[in-house]
Amino acid sequence: MTVPEERERWTVTPSHTLPEPRQPADERAVAWFTYTAAGDQIVWSPAFAAMIGRAPTEKGKTRQILARHVHRDDHAKALGAITEAWTSQTTVHTTVRLMRADGGWFDIDCTLEPMAGPDGAVRGIRGMVRDVSVRERARRESARLTRRGETVQASLVEPDPATGLLIRARFADEIDRALRGAGGALLVVRVQAGDTAEGVRPDHNVELLHRAARLVEEKARPEHLIGRVGPNEIGVLFARSTWRSAREQARDLIAALSEQSHCWGGLVRFERDAEAGSHGLLIDAEQAWRQSREADRSITLVAHPVPVRDRQGSYRSRVADALGTDRFTLYSQPILELQTNRVTRHELLLRVLDEADGPQSPIQVLDTAERLDAIFDIDLWVVERAMRLAAEQPGLCLQVNLSGRSVGDPRLTNEVEKLLERYRVEPAQLTFEITETALIGNLSEARRFADRVRDLGCGLALDDFGSGYASFRYLRLFPIDLVKIDGEYVVDLVDNPQDQVLVRALVQVCQAYGIHTVAEFVQDEATLRMLRELGVDYVQGYLIGRPSPVEPGGLRQP
Question: What is the overall mean pLDDT for the chain?
């Protein structure tokens, strides 16, 4: 906000200090200049003088003066055209930008003709100039729109790679849209191959899910949306359907799926502008299919969404149960320092042990836990196990992910201090990562946490930089030591000039702020070489090492 003194200062500034707008060129006027080598003489026409904003009768014009009116990015192009005309003794055409005396610039087409003396030797150059700013502006705008078309994602409808269905986040968006429009119902179906060892093989499971997705698409009506909402879960949105119609269609779908696999369903009814949002309805439907499995029935019907308070309590109980039964586990991924070419740190990654399919990404669980304020216990579980690992291996440096809600929770700072004291860990072994894509609940508490862990000697990292809500703001809000460049801009870096520009800019910004950089998703040598050239400090990805389970004996040291 501008202070009163600043407003007053701007108010009294006379408007005539601004440059005069450039008037359109008179197309009938002939603009030209000549350069004669003998005496280094420049002569230009009144029309050319008007173009560049200089007096027509100006004395002492030289080639240095003329060169200063060529846009700096076009100097080489203009010099090349002049050299070609001079040496080849032929007419050369070029298009360059000229600078006006007031700092503005415009485009010209220039025809360069060599001027020969009586002996046939070239003694100078004559240039005929035509203002083509309108044409070139239109060309640049067309090129700009083409670049934007190539670099902007065509659609937000991202298909799940295994099934071709909507991903959970996009499916949730459609549920929220349906809640604003009319009533309906949400079905979540869990499919499972069986209890055999073959049933838990990843390739077999992907094939099963793919077949189930195709069957649901075949049986569902065109107006019903389908998405993959979990590792083995398919959601079907019956928007604008009556409860009776949704029940009949859900039973038909489950009956068809039962012919090829074990399956259980949970169907939840919702009304327009209901209290429960998309995530609440998904939780209710997922809880309903679990009840179906426990009761050995095909489907559980929920005629009314669960109250928010009850849902939070139920989910907290599920998180506590998962923590108590070791359904959470840790993996680690190595991070290579490019200066020494040594693995100097590891990132700890949380995995959820599914009932049948082994370790799964925790994104779904963490997203729901964060929205229902049940994430703190999960983050604390990870921090404590990181402390144990660091205590068991004093030379080990670990990076620990924290949710935005936990970072803003005043309890976290105290817990970290207690754990450091209990396990007698060297604080420099730990770097806490906050993700840019997370909305931090309380910025003041988050800053208090960041300042305190830095005072203790721990590091602070910003994950997924360039992809989320915070942009560059977090670099000013928090004492960040290390930034992890989002892998989306790294995975195609070698073949994508736009990503190269972005990564270079991110690295330069971080260097200016005194922050180290890590590039994620590094999968080949060519990408690694380019990241070295761009000045990245650390790299992480399958080329360096895949995530692997944290064994009881600890991590392998580099």
Answer: 82
